[in-house]
């Protein structure tokens, strides 16, 4: 029963994906087919589809998506770019560093790598082109820097992880992602500076550097957003879900009344688009509940975990195998999808080795971040290459530099768990 059901479950899922079926359809159809064939009770399908999304932490997900889009459309990115340019000044690699810093900062507002990369690419690629940066490099760098958004809180991906792993709370995961997220972003500065000096990028484009205080006053409303969100969480003024609502209303206030870049028509468009994005994510999570129920009832996930454990009992080698598997998966799927597909398999292994769930969640998320800008199916890179008007293939030579830099950060966090655990432990999470 286990062998037959597992074959139907995993092979059916893989075949449907290969045929181009949406992820939600592949998860739901494969899981339902196993439940029907193996007689696991067809009424479990609607029950588990509902239970998959009937979780309190998931209330924050659509609202953080809305908040991120509010800030993106409000013109916050443009003003923060000007401020970062004033801070960094003009020198070799300066515009590349500005792009990285702005992506990291906006990641503390949007929680979405693709949205972060899109907002920064629209502003930065034209100005980087003026200073001699190739479009292919610019698109790759912004895609890589944008991937830090799923590490730096508030992260939509970490919210989903907390739902699937209840022992890891949202505040603990948010705190755990801060240092690794900053490390991942700063690591990208190394290849940026090296390549800028090597190829002579960052020459003076004739434009005046923004004045510090003027740009600071323009950007202050955007700069305050992470302070309000994370400060409110830390002081206990509001929960992660309430923080999402505060962020959305704050973005609305800034866009409509301060910068006056959001008309009521644009607000309506933001509401519609964010609802569509959230609905897709929720549908995937819902039908993943059916897939997970089928696999766990069969014992397929435990069997797969035992298969992995059969290769080695060495903890370091097991972590390496999992990392390679997640890196490959991250190239093909987004972070939320990878969690839903792989966590049921990896949780038994995590329990055997007694890995801290917060640390393991950060490790998984760092793998997903690298996958977001690694060809051939990199989500962030698809967005930035479209904006830059270049092909995915042309970015490969630059992507390898960024992948190497982030892998260094991943290795350090894997080897030294306190890099991810020190802050949540210090804050008492």
From TrEMBL:
It holds the Pfam family DctM. It comes from the Bacteria. The keyword Phosphoprotein does not apply. Residues 11-419 form the TRAP C4-dicarboxylate transport system permease DctM subunit domain. InterPro entries: DctM, TRAP_DctM. The keyword Cell inner membrane applies. The chain crosses the membrane at residues 6-37, 58-76, 96-125, 137-161, 173-197, 243-262, 274-296, 316-346, 358-378, 398-423. It is found in: Cell inner membrane. It is a multi-pass membrane protein. Its main location: membrane. Keywords: Cell inner membrane, Cell membrane, Membrane, Transmembrane, Transmembrane helix, Transport. Belongs to the TRAP transporter large permease family. Part of the tripartite ATP-independent periplasmic (TRAP) transport system. PANTHER family: SIALIC ACID TRAP TRANSPORTER PERMEASE PROTEIN SIAT-RELATED (PTHR33362). The complex comprises the extracytoplasmic solute receptor protein and the two transmembrane proteins. This is TRAP transporter large permease protein. It comes from Noviherbaspirillum album. The lineage of its organism: Bacteria, Pseudomonadati, Pseudomonadota, Betaproteobacteria, Burkholderiales.
